[in-house]
Design a protein that fits this description.
Layout: H1 13-30, H2 42-61, H3 64-67, H4 71-98, H5 101-104
Helix pairs in contact: 1-2, 2-4
């Protein structure tokens, strides 16, 4: 599957990546029924990770310099960075949605989106 970013993206790289991040977060922020769960099964975790891997790949493709790299280079960068990006995004979204409860009560966000 070939990814093509939106035509109406800003030209400035940081604005472009911010736009892509907001696009990625939009479904999570609009989710009406956030459920607090105590644990995840292995299958549930794999489903979450798969969804996040695709989302991270899409976000990276909004970076013109990354998008222009050969596939092998993209894969090297992606493999080295997706876990860090996923953890950081999960933590920041949990704090944004739950505030200090995310820290004090160890409440975290996992989304199917």
């Amino acid at each position: 599957m070939e990814f093509e970013p939106d035509d109406c993206l800003p030209n400035e790289p940081l604005e472009r990546m911010n736009h892509a991040l907001l696009r990625h977060r939009r479904p999570q922020l609009a989710e009406p029924d956030l459920k607090i769960i105590g644990s995840l099964s292995f299958v549930q975790a794999m489903t979450f990770w798969e969804t996040q891997i695709y989302a991270i790949g899409e976000w990276l493709m909004h970076c013109q310099e990354f998008a222009q790299l050969p596939l092998e280079e993209k894969m090297k960068l992606f493999k080295a960075s997706w876990v860090i990006w996923q953890r950081f995004e999960r933590i920041t979204m949990s704090i944004e949605l739950f505030g200090w409860r995310a820290v004090n009560e160890k409440v975290g966000l996992h989304s199917n989106l």
